[in-house]
Amino acid sequence: METIVADLLSAATRAEPTKIALSEAATGRTVTWAGLDDLADRVAHGLSVAGMVAGYRVMIATTNRIEFVATYLGVLRARMVAVPINPRSATGEVVRMLVDSGARMVIADSTTIGTVRSAVAGVGEALAAAETSTPKPRLVTIATTLEPGERSWDHLVMETGAPVPGTTDPESLAVLLYTSGTSGRPRAAMLSHRALAANIAQAAEVVPPMINGRDVVLGVLPLFHVYGLNAVLGQVLRQHARMVLVDGFDPEGSLDIIEDEAISVLPVAPPVFAYWMQVPGLEERLGPVRTILSGSAPLAPELTEAFTARTGLRIHQGYGLTEAAPVVTSTQCSASTDPRSVGAPLPGIQVRLVDERGAAPEDGDSGEIWIKGENLFSGYWPDGADGPDPEGWWPTGDVGYLTEAGDLFLVDRLKELVIVSGFNVYPSEVEDVIAELAAVAEVAVIGADDPMTGEVVVAYVKPAQEIEEDELVAQVRAHCETRLAGFKRPTVIHVVPALPYTGTGKVQKGRLRATERRRALGLLE
After folding, report:
1. How far apart are CA 63 and CA 28, in angstroms?
2. 459 φ, ψ to 5°?
3. Which of the listed residues 203, 261, 352, 385 has the most CB atoms within 10 Å of its CB?
4. Topology given in CATH for the domain delimited by 418-520
5. Does residue 366 have a pLDDT over 90?
6. In angstroms, how far is CA 136 from the centroid of its own chain?
């Protein structure tokens, strides 16, 4: 087994150097395996020439494009640490991730350059005020006009050079991915070279394969997300498939790409199906497709059944987490078909259930899902906190039950995570931002069901002083727009005279969620 993901690129180049590896739907640009291999080498060399050394963090703030993949693989090849972030993050979020990760360099494109410039400037000012010797992050820009002190992508990759000397320790850190974790505020999961390569190998053992070398794969899942980065791109590298990179999902546009590029494998997030079901003639436009893979959030069984009945295509679901790099189970590993199940564990991954006493629940009862495997992360940045226990088991914070055949069914979440279009939102992060407003005395954030995005963010706000409801809502929306990525912003904001509390002073979010359910049923105005 290849011990680092970048080795998969070398293997693909040796086997099929002239085969197209990546193409961009929007621009028509393509790159072969040999071309991608050369580009990754140039990135590794350029980083080294710039004074970057093994262990330094490189933030990747770009959309799905060839340069993202080349940067990612070049960073791994140079034994540095990739920090992919959501290109639609707000400036405050980028500042926090820059400071937390200690990234020494940021790669940005035309979509992100404004936000990244502001964030880098803010970090620089803070470092100067602190009179520290830590340098502010350097900025490399792709296809943008340079400002003083910046370096262009073309300059970074202009020279080839000798491979970076030394070997890569499989246990060394490869990627930092920001996630909600199982506690509160988003933290960076530390994924080693071993974890990434292990999950790629585990998924590759599934029969029939999720992706094979003849496949053309839709690359619409964002590469900053572990699902797109390792579950999809990792298999494309392993199997020498072709990936069509797409920036953002559009129902009609995505179907055009599927037809034009003869896409055979569709790895997508659950909200995609609700949008596609509204498109006339959907069944005719999925002609080239042989496999559909869904992950990152639960999919309603009735939607699964309706989609399959209409198109004749089965949706293979899975369960995964950033901390598991990411795939844990798949219905392709199941002995039987049940649209409510997220499948059985991949080869090499163990799943067990634990009740509130720390013991195995009674037969058929649900419990917290614990997992074990070589694909597990090394804990949270920077000290490896809350990682797997000494025996290798890690509690996911999710609740489920297992059938005798080993299929996993998700029941609930112990954590209060809200999943919007497959992206994680932790309520405490949104609450902290809203609480910054002087006009807000108290705030509680929950998730509510939504037919298109799975869930939406709902905020309950108690005003600090007398204020018009519309004015407070406008203030909250405006503040969130500057501090939070779009998917984290509250879709609904309720101004209330008081929040419900328990006897121990904790907000009763269960009551708020029940209120939302009654409102959805039309039982409340």
Report:
1. 15
2. -115, 135
3. 203
4. GMP Synthetase; Chain A, domain 3 (3.30.300)
5. no
6. 26
Mean pLDDT in the chain? 92
> 412 falls in which pLDDT band (50, 70, 90)?
low
The C-alpha angle with vertex 269 and arms to 396 and 296, in degrees rounded to 5, equals 5
What dihedral angle (degrees, nearest 10) is formed by the CA atoms of 90, 426, 330, 377? 80
What are the domain boundaries of the chain?
A: 5-10+28-168, 193-413, 418-520
- The pLDDT score that the predictor gives to residue 414 is 61
**DSSP states along 387-407:** ---TTSEEEEEEEEEE-TT--
**The predicted structure's pLDDT at residue 180:** 60
pLDDT above 80 for 487: yes
Preceding omega of 208 cis (within 30 degrees of 0):
yes
Give 338's pLDDT tier (boundaries 50, 70, 90): confident
pLDDT > 70: what percent of the chain?
A: 96
CA atoms lying within 13 Å on the CB side of residue 517? 6
Query: Which of 163-167, 171-175, 403-407 is most confident?
Result: 171-175
pLDDT category, 520, cuts 50, 70, 90?
confident
Helix (H) / strand (E) element for 422: namely none
* Spatial contact of 24 and 245, defined as CB atoms under 8 Å apart: yes
Q: Which residues contact 19 (CB under 8 A, 6 or more apart)?
A: 32, 33, 240, 242
Among the CATH numbers 3.40.50.980, 1.10.443.10, 3.20.20.10, 3.30.70.80, which is that of 5-10+28-168? 3.40.50.980
Cis (ω within 30 of 0) for the bond into 163?
Answer: no
pLDDT in tens, 42-51: 999 999 999 9
Token duo for residue 162: 């000798």
Q: Are 193-413 and 418-520 the same fold in CATH?
A: no
Superfamily grouping for domain 193-413: ANL, N-terminal domain (3.40.50.12780)
Q: Phi and psi of 378, rounded to 5°? A: -105, 20
Query: Are the CB atoms for 253 and 281 separated by under 8 Å?
Result: no
Q: Tell me the sheet residues that pair with 31.
A: 22
Q: Write the DSSP assignment of 119-138 as a string of letters.
A: HHHHHHHHHHHTT--PPPPE
Region 4-18 average pLDDT: 96
The side-by-side arrangement of strands in the sheet containing 57-61 is 151-152, 138-141, 105-108, 57-61, 81-84, 173-179, 187-192
Assigned token pair, 357: 């006493």
Which is more confident, 438 or 513?
438
Task: Return the percentage of the chain with pLDDT > 90, whole number.
Answer: 75
Q: How far apart are CA 285 and CA 40, in angstroms?
A: 35
> Which residues lie closer than 8 Å to 209 by C-beta, 6 or more apart?
239
Res 478: pLDDT: 96
**DSSP string across 273-334:** HHHHTTSTTHHHHTTT--EEEE-SS---HHHHHHHHHHHS--EEEEEE-GGGSSEEEEGGG-
